[in-house]
Amino acid sequence: MFDNSLIFDCHDKLILVVEDDYDIGDIIEHYLTREGMRVLRAMNGKQALEILAVQSIDLLLLDIKLPEMNGWDVLKRIRQYDNEPPVIMLTALDQDIDKVMALRMGADDFVVKPFNPNEVVARVVAVLRRTLHTKQIKNRNLRYKNLLIKSDTRTAYMEFDSKTLIINLTLTEYRILTLMIEYPHKVFTRSELINQCMPDGNALERTLDSHVSKLRKKLEEHGLEQMLINVRGVGYRLDHPQE
Predict the structure, then answer these.
(1) Are residues 84 and 9 in the same domain?
(2) What Å distances lie between residue 187 and 78, 95, 101, 203, 239, CA to CA?
C-alpha cells in the first residue's frame, strides 16, 4: 500500500547548479524546472560562493572540476556556514576514491557523468526530503521504550532506572534508527531506507542489510531484543505492532 506520508513536494525549491559546461547545465536546469523547482546557475566556484552569500539555496549540484575554485574547495567553504545547504557532487571521474572523499568532506550524494537527468532529479528530491526530515527532528529528543535519541548531538542512549548508556552508532546506523523510531511499527522498504539514510545513492540492498544487522546486534547488546524485524520481500520495521 502506498504511504502518503512519503509524498514530498519539491515545488519552488531553489537549486544552485554549479557547472561550467553550458550544455550539461542546460539539461539539468530543464529537468529540474520541469519538476517545479527554481534554478540558479554558476559557471565557477567563486561565482557559486558569491551567490550563496546573498541567496538562500535549498540544494547545490556542484561539479568538481571548475575554473576559479574547484568543487572540493567550494564544498569545504560551504561546510563552514551555519545554515549549510545540502550538496550533491557531479564528476566525470568514476572512481571510488572520489566518492569516499566527497562523502567524507560532507557531500550528501554523488553523481557520476554521464548520467541520466531523471536520476539527477531523483537524487535531488531524495536529498531534499532527507534534509527536510533532519530539520524537522533537529533539537528534538525521540523516545521508544527505553531507547532515547538526542538529535542535537546525534547520540543514542539506553535509559535504565539507575543509569544511561550510550549506544555507539555509525552515521548510517544513526540515520536508520532515527527514521524508524518515529514510526516504530511502519514497514520501511529497502529502497526507502537507502534513499533516506545512505548518502551514496549507489548503495546496494545487501549493504543496507549489513547496516541493519549490525544495528540490531548493538540494540540486542543493550537489552532491546527482537527489534529491526525483517519483513520478508519488503523491508524492515523497528518493532511489532502492539496487540
Answers:
(1) yes
(2) 36, 34, 33, 20, 9
